[in-house]
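User: For a benchmark we're assembling, each entry needs the component sequences followed by a predicted structure for the full assembly. Here are entry 17's components. Please fill in the structure.
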Amino acid sequence: MVGLSAGEKQFMHGGIAQDLRSDGRQRLQFRPISIQTGVIPQANGSARVTLGATVVIASIKAELGKPAPLRPDKGKVVIFIDCSPTAGTMFEGRGGEELSSELSVGLQRCLLGGKSGAEAGAGIDLSSLVLAEGKICWDLYIDGLVISSDGNLLDALAAAIKVCRFIFLVRFEISSPWQVALSNTGIPKVSVIVEASAEDQLEVNVSDEEFLQFDTSGVPVIVTLTKVGRHYIADATSEEESQMSSAVSVSVNRHGRVCGLTKRGGAGLDPSVMLDMISVAKHASENLIAVLDSEIAAAEAAEDDGS
Amino acid sequence: MASTDGDRPESKLAAEIEVEAYRRLFPLPYYDRHLVESVRPDGRALGQARETTIAVGPVSSANGSALVKLGDTTMLAAIKLEVMTPSTKSPDEGSLAVDFYMPPICSPSIRPGRPADTAPVIAKQLSDAISSSGMINLKELSLVSGKAAWMAYLDIYCLNADGSLFDAALLSATAAFSHLQIPLVSLNDSGRVITISEEQKGKSVSEPLNKEIRKLAIKNTPFSLTCILHDKHILADPTSEEESVMDTHVTVVLDSKGRLVSSYKAGGSVLLSRSMIKNCMEIAKQRMEELGEILKESLSAMEID
Amino acid sequence: MASGPLETYSPSQTLERRHQQQKRKSFNEIDWARSDGRNFHQCRPAYLRTGATSSASGSAYAEFGSTKVIVSVFGPRESKKAMMYSDVGRLNCNVSYTTFSTSTRGQGSDNKDFSSMLQKALEGAIILETFPKTTVDIFALVLESAGGDLPIIISCASLALADAGIMMYDLVSAVSLSCFGKNLVIDPTSEEEACQDGSLMIAYMPIRNEVTQFTLTGEWSTAKINEAMELCLDACSKLSNILRSCLKENVLDFTD
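Assistant: Structure for entry 17:
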């Protein structure tokens, strides 16, 4: 954990009260974001996001699987976040596990809309992953790795997932839109020949040549507002996080709709402050989405030039 | 009752300190002085069991369930029926799986992630007692010979541990089996067994495998009593405090005809003499009759509802 | 006796699924009746008792509809040896399910995050400074799960904490809500939870007017969040009164 002296604490609190934080930012200003896609060649999609000194990598792999018997019309998404002990001493042992599971659950709630993913309008539409109902579907494995931590991991991870471009090529029609995290993911073309054979087995043809890029613009971004003293700030560094009383992570999609929300930290919040924070987070998300979009465009342009 | 004991002049220390402190500091002498007077700290006679209540059917999501309170010891047993393919050795028999859980809520000494040492021991004793007493005829759990049979999962949770866990667990298992109702089922086209709900009963395409919702015929119910041996004394139905102070335990399991199903004595400092075994059996027999009455009453109370 | 793992299945599964798909259709309509006859803004009847487990420092039993929960509180007692010195007390929460809590055996155990959610909901309400260097253990067992498990565990746990005499700023009461299209349905059953479009859960201290835990899933507009929060906060305040009267009754029983 970050140890701060009384003077440093006072400096930080004073700065936040006057809308000028230690690194010169305003309360609701994000640190500069840079994005690199396709960092892991063996994954279907991957991205590295650098947010100030926080660096995270997200990768998405797609595998063919069988839908759960109780949800025959849905694919499955597994989110797993690993906090590497190299990123900081607090990630060693059990502390790292706890943080990992907290982040995984937070992302799951914000991107999948609840554990079951049963809800409509969630960040990732699970029904688009089904190839043949009850028989075969895509299982998405979303893995996040925290390489270096300087606060605001949840927002960075969500942004990284959002910018893994997702390419999806199947003979079946896929109607729902995906967004940036999924913007570098190639899923091989698959054709399923549904035959009522005796063993009820499906034949699956996988072709490596054809890929379909999938639009990932529907994936929400997460904006975390951290309450320090009487004010709240966006994109807190770990120094600032050590002083938080509570934090609210809001996931917002392109249409300005809230897709998920988690509260962190033990201290209670006044309901009206809470609502205020939600609307501020919504506003901040617009900027974040715009920044991510332009970064993706830049990354794509760079890629095109390279090839 | 205990305070008068503490005021006795013969032990200087006992007169000087409070009863509660004496109890904690010198538990053994504390008990000894009670036992001399043939009374236990909670006011019971030596061979007397605690008040016992049985409530059947508290869990609506299970096929059969029972809640047993033995003094402060509370046990919740529930049976769930699932369909399995019987083994080739016994194609017309169902199966029974018994599990005993001590979740962290039941006792301060149990922490999550580290299961209690005694839980698997009690689970084994329970499944032995149930199978060897012949209470359940596994043939009754058969559906289609060689194809489908019931697998009965009996799960017993200890909600509050205050001694004599095995006795309470066995009683809750017996009560849950008495309450167990086997649902109406039929085979569907793909050979899987499905339940038939009430409204479908008439217009069901496939023939039901069993005619009506039925109960198991329970032939021989085992009852058990745990006693603590201390010097010459036999204390029936001990609390957890008594169990921790005195270390020799004897558990006797009798069936409803009074025959011995099993008995356990796991070491301890007191050695059993033949007359003591006899005494234990005698107390257990009385207790068995008592429990039989209580069980009968609770079952008939349910039928009235 | 069973030897080795056997393939077994619950016979009703296929029917249940069909049933659920039918249900789903009816939920999408504007007007539908809840299976237990409540209206959309009505909570299930609550039954609460303290002192369910005598071996614990404090305990409570809660029954909302057919959801049944027991919470035991142990301590404050010595923290584990490996723990570092701390001048405020620690909380250790654990939530477990019985194997028969859901209709399919052994399905209730996939709620691993409930333990940390429970801890976060209660942390802000407990005056941790009153028991430095020690730990309070809060253990919950869900006997039967029929929807709204987490909010019921939270409310029941705050009652158990009060029963154990742990100092708190206020009782925490929690309520969840499901969203179906335009409708907001409070205190959903598990059947309703399985088909919901979105959900919201609030843990609230009415006297301090503070929200200790808030989660939201699914797509929501701000206006709808406002409406849902108002409904939940109102229900939390009412539930808090019920918790309070339960504690009072307990004290009266004691003095009699």
